[in-house]
Amino acid sequence: MAARARWVVLAVCVGFVAGACSSSAGTGAASGGASSGGVPVTKVTDGDTIHVVYRGHDERVRLIGVNTPEVPWYGGKEDCYGVQAGLYARRRLSGRSVRLAFDVNLRDRYGRLLAYVYVGSELFNLTLVRLGYAKADPVPPDIRLASTFERAESDARAAGRGLWSACPG
């Protein structure tokens, strides 16, 4: 019986260590891994920028690989379909927890975290492009999913979704 108990303890320990390793591995920007667990969204600034609580701090997050039209909410110039994109992001992300995944750079020149944002298993960045709320916007070196976003943009444009039917030129 003692041998069986040792195996149970060993199995539990191995499971615990494996779980801890998988949830913390790859959280660095260079690895392209995801952060462990979800982070709460505290604010949706516009279609491609949100605030989250990350590692105990309020952080601005710029969604990698996409660009939504500008919103007028902060005194700036409104672009065609910007309000729609911003409201869609607010509806989908406000009050939710999301998972962040990183590419090469952890931050941009403005100090924002650069991330792929997941709502469950859905890559929200890609959803924005597929539905025509955003254009693909690859910015090297963070281009791991650039071809995926470009294909989604091509499909949205061909189908006349979102900004592709609402905005001239």
- Radius of gyration over C-alpha positions, nearest whole angstrom: 19 Å
Please report the distance between the alpha carbons of the first and last residues.
Answer: 76 Å
The fraction of residues assigned to DSSP E strands is 15-25%
Structural class: alpha+beta
CATH architecture: Beta Barrel
Largest sheet: 5 strands, mixed, barrel
The helix content is 25-40%
Q: Would you tell me the overall average pLDDT?
A: 84
Shape: globular
The CATH topology turns out to be OB fold (Dihydrolipoamide Acetyltransferase, E2P)
Please report the number of helical segments: 5
> How many beta strands in the DSSP annotation?
8
Broad CATH class: Mainly Beta
Strand order of the largest sheet: 1-2-3-6-5
Total domain modules: 1
**Helix/strand order, N-terminal first:** HEEEEHEEEHEHH
State the low-pLDDT regions, or none: 1-35
Describe the protein's architecture and organization.
- The chain is an alpha+beta fold and 169 residues long.
- It has one domain: OB fold (Dihydrolipoamide Acetyltransferase, E2P) (Beta Barrel), CATH 2.40.50.
- The chain has five helices and eight strands.
- The chain has helices spanning 2-24, 82-93, 124-130, 146-159, 163-166, and strands at residues 39-46, 49-54, 57-63, 66-67, 97-101, 113-119, 122-123, 135-136.
- It has a five-stranded mixed beta barrel. Strands 4-8 form a two-stranded antiparallel ribbon.
- A hairpin with a 2-residue loop joins strand 6 and strand 7 (122-123).
- The termini are far apart.
- The relative contact order is 0.16.
